[in-house]
Amino acid sequence: MRLADLRTRWPGGEIIGFGDTDLLLPQGRRVALLGRSPVGTSALAAVLLGFLDYQGVATLNDVQLRDLADEDVRKVIGLCAHDAHLFDTTLAENVRVARPDATAEDVARALGGAGVDLPPDTRLDDESVAAGDDRRRIALARALLADLPILILDEPDTRPDESAADAALADLIAAAQGRTLLLILHRPVLPGAAAILRHVDEVVEI
């Protein structure tokens, strides 16, 4: 994936630019994106997932994302969000939405890889899992089951203990080993001081 000279806008909103960023992401590279505003970082995630059009360069294997079918993009890029939607069914079925033909062993492997510490037959709904970290882990399990090569890890965490939040993110980064990872940080951090940045290969301000 390559991102360069990107600009986009939410419907009815002002143009959002990402500066002079020229980012090349070979397989397995882990990059932290430090956003100047939550609006900008959320817009970038929406561009990469095909929800917003854009100007500039956003390519997969030298093909512009806008020239690819949305479903093809989402077979390659996945979002591990703190507010991932949960369906009113078991944990296993919530994960299996990523690959309906997956076996019970496949699902268990994905859950284990994502560090989801609940039995697969646990009943869930969208109100039963409040913690953003737990939702992100379930979203990561879906991504692992679908074998998505590029993951966007959305950071927002309301816990006052920043070190605990960073430890949870570090676990998720480790679980995504071997995949290209974009870690979107909405909070201000110091590139030389924030512990979470030790777990990535590159830090880019957008």
User: Biggest β-sheet, characterized?
Assistant: 5 strands, antiparallel
**SSE ordering:** EEEEHEEHEEHHEHEHEE
Could you report the average pLDDT, rounded to the nearest whole number? 87
Helix/strand class: alpha/beta
Outline: globular
Helix content range: 25-40%
Radius of gyration: 17 Å
Strand content: 15-25%
Tell me which oligomeric state these chains represent: single chain
Number of helices: 6
Describe it.
By secondary structure, this protein is an alpha/beta fold. The protein contains six helices and twelve strands. It has helices spanning 38-48, 70-73, 91-96, 104-114, 132-146, 162-175, and strands at residues 2-8, 16-17, 22-24, 30-34, 55-60, 63-64, 77-80, 89-90, 123-124, 150-154, 180-185, 202-205. Strands 1, 2, 3, 5 and 6 form a five-stranded antiparallel β-sheet that branches. The longest helix is centred in the C-terminal third of the chain and has 15 residues, at 132-146. The model has no long low-confidence stretch (mean pLDDT 87).
List the helices and strands and how they pair.
Layout: E1 2-8, E2 16-17, E3 22-24, E4 30-34, H1 38-48, E5 55-60, E6 63-64, H2 70-73, E7 77-80, E8 89-90, H3 91-96, H4 104-114, E9 123-124, H5 132-146, E10 150-154, H6 162-175, E11 180-185, E12 202-205
Helix pairs in contact: 4-5, 5-6
Which features would summarize this protein structure in a list?
five-stranded parallel sheet, 206 residues, 6 helices, 30% helix, alpha/beta
Summed up:
This protein is α/β, with parallel strands linked by helices and 206 residues long. The chain contains six helices and twelve strands.
